[in-house]
Amino acid sequence: MSFTSFAEISDLKTLSGQPFGYLLITSKQFENFNEMTEDEKSSKQHSTTVEEPMDLVRLSLDERIFVKLRSNRELRGRLHAYDQHLNMVLGDVEEIETIVEIDDETYEEKNTRTFPMLFIRGDGVILVSPPTETDTKIYPE
């Protein structure tokens, strides 16, 4: 199955009611969520224990998260998919780029952009976190 646009991927989520084909990470293998039986899906979805670091990311699926990237960029958006490299697909994303100039007069400038859907390459990810309390007030579910 191939896609020509992010809109087609978004439609898949809407049609199935589930995030599209994301991978759940286990200690030594990948599991394709779309190929699991209903019992396996429910046991994976409802497991709230954190046994390894990637479990924290798994528990954030379909939730708003905060992602700090290299080059002074921060993202806030809904996590639709991820893999073991922390490549991610986020929806309803706000990007904040902070530019700091250190001259005679030091100043900080923030540029903001929004995207309906965004792919993030994992090698630029520094930190992944649930949004802070302030973020949840600004961006309610």
What does this entry show, briefly?
With 141 residues, the chain is of the alpha+beta class.
What percent of residues adopt helix (DSSP H or I)?
Answer: 10-25%
| Helical stretch tally | 4
Just name the CATH architecture of the largest domain: Roll
Query: What profile does the largest beta sheet have?
Result: 5 strands, antiparallel
Order of helices and strands: HEEHHEEEEEH
CATH topology of the largest domain: SH3 type barrels
* CATH first level of the largest domain: Mainly Beta
Instruction: Tell me the total number of β-strands.
Output: 7
* Alpha-beta classification: alpha+beta
The count of domains is 2
Arrangement of strands in the largest sheet: 6-5-4-3-7
Mean pLDDT equals: 75
The fraction of residues assigned to DSSP E strands is: 35-45%
Residue windows where pLDDT falls under 50 for at least 5 positions: 1-10, 12-16, 18-31
What value does the Rg take, in angstroms? 17 Å
- Terminal CA distance: 31 Å
Overall form: elongated
Domain Sm: 52-134
Main location: nucleus
Subcellular location: Nucleus
Family: Belongs to the snRNP Sm proteins family.
